[in-house]
Amino acid sequence: MERAELAAWLRLLETPGLGRESTRRLLAAAGSPEAVFDGPLARWRDVLRAPLLAALEQPPEHLDELVDKTSAWLADSPQRHILALGDADYPELLLQTSDPPLLLYLEGRRELLGAPMLAIVGSRNPSAQGRDNAKAFGRALSQAGLTIVSGLALGVDGAAHEGALEGEASTIGVVGTGLDQVYPRRHQALARTIAERGLMVSEYALGMPPLSQNFPLRNRIIAGMARGCLVVEAALQSGSLITARLASEAGREVFAIPGSIHSPQSRGCHALLRQGAKLVERTEDVLEELPASLRQRSPAAAAPAPAEPAVAPEMQQVLALMGYDPVSLDELVNRGGWPAAELSGWLLELEMAGSVARLAGQLFQRRAQA
Questions:
Q1: Mean pLDDT within 278-283
Q2: Which of 19, 55, 234, 335 could be 238's S-S partner, Cβ–Cβ 3.0 to 4.6 Å?
């Protein structure tokens, strides 16, 4: 993108009060960002209300600094790009949504925008099993040829990205900050890896901090780019349900993994299932709803799940009595009749082996191999 075009785009997008819909109307009338400013702005009075035209008359104070910063960012790596609405390789599915971003900042493998994508989203505070599921499905669906899209958040998002990076089709991280920022900071290394082996995407200008209002807007891009959306774990008020709703409104498939009826993190998925989402237990449950032409590999080619660690016979009995719902130490003592001290030792060994997770409130849960 040439500097003059970049400056015109940024002037439009950084003008206070000029929202995305007004900007789209203005661009439709003018034909390009530069044409908006190529003459008196009063000629757009049939397109914009007077207060917006007045705001547009005055360039934002930080405009020159932002143009310089963005130009330097682009020049610093051949893997960095800015994609405008209407560019030839703008994601086709995203273009079909009601509110496609006007600009997309990219870092990484731009060609992934043309790949078949599936969104995987969920809780920022998943259970150990939920994190395992997100990583396993991310890996297996990537092996099946789908590029995994998620939001780089803690919990399910991060696990899905990690699993996809172990696959073959890679992953796309859509963030609610400028691409020169990483949020959460704990995902600095993950963001760098995605930029190197996958693709980082944002609609926000460089320097944009992690503002709470940006993340629900970010979700529409995740939903809009993908053929479907898999929700792994979500509470009833989770932002993941916003992503699922946006996917449904865009005519995309919505999938949900069921969980324990006692787990708050499963209630969002159960609500989606009641609303018609497809119940998912296996990779094939997702793939069979998508056109076969989108898959580069058959489900059988996906990497096998790791085997459950071998444990002593008495601990196998503990696992059998636990089931898969959260359970307290006292309840396990009642079920099995073991001394509490001996049972505590076995649970610690099972936890270290990855077969059991310790939950809040002194509860334990068996971890199934996803």
A1: 96
A2: 234
